[in-house]
Task: structure prediction
Amino acid sequence: SGAGEGTDGGAGGTVTIITHDSFAITDEQIAAFEAESGYTLRTTAPGDAGFVVNQLILGKDAPTVDGFYGVDNYSAQTILDEGVVAGYRPESLPASAEQYLIGEGLTPIDRGQVCLNVDHQWFTDNGVAEPTSFAELAQPEYAELLVVTDPATSSPGLAFLVATIAEHGEDGWQDYWTQLLDGGAKVAAGWSDAYYTDFSGADGEGPFPIVVSYSSSPAYSEGRTGSLDFSCTDQIEYAGVVEGAANPEGAQAFIDFMLAEEFQTALPENMYMYPIDDAIELPAEWAQYATLSDDPLEVDPATVAEHREQWITEWTELREQR
Result:
């Protein structure tokens, strides 16, 4: 009988999962998990995915959580290298998830693409053509329309930084970002602020008609917005059990729950991500508006792990010099 199991053989106790602040789980789902597993679920969300990675690393010698959700493919190798992740491979892993496995113990839960989104209406109303390339985006008349997110704290921010490095190379991206920032691009701390407050195409009616977001976001706006194909890069979100956790069985049970049909089916509506299980049918508006790019920009996750801190530091210095 492991930690968290009662003498009657049933599970028990609390399982604590750290997630990013875009994690959404309904009361019904929590009740279903608790009824099925016998654990009480507690979630903690310190901020965007970058904060989750930092918290996991800072707490690795005395972990206060049992599991995590929301570490993305460009940060995955970093937490593996730090020894944060306990080995766990769910028996219920769908075949379509296997291509996204990285290392021991990271379970892919959902996927999407980080892409620039545009407010079609703004461009129509202002008689401006939408940008069609990274080069065009860096011209001042477009850069001043753009809101990005900080790669140090935001997983879409990191993915977009990686996309610009894929496009401009390790020698050219700094010049590119200098153009964007000097041209008037705004930097928001996290995705929620950028999308809901700064972006003109969402509820915020903000002043910026181009935002770093997801290929799925246009489903939310029912086609008022669109994603720019040239800018897309894949994002896979992982869950895992924390090495040294007080309740590893509870974390395993929650990972199994997130792979089950009910949770996977609700992912598009609750979190605007694509289920990792390809057998799940997508909502109708996704088939219409939330198309994935066939040719996303790619950088090897191991390369990102090796250079991630350096790239973020260089980016932060560039920003502070503006």
Summary: The first strand starts at residue 14 and ends at 18. Residues 1-10 have pLDDT under 50 and may be disordered.
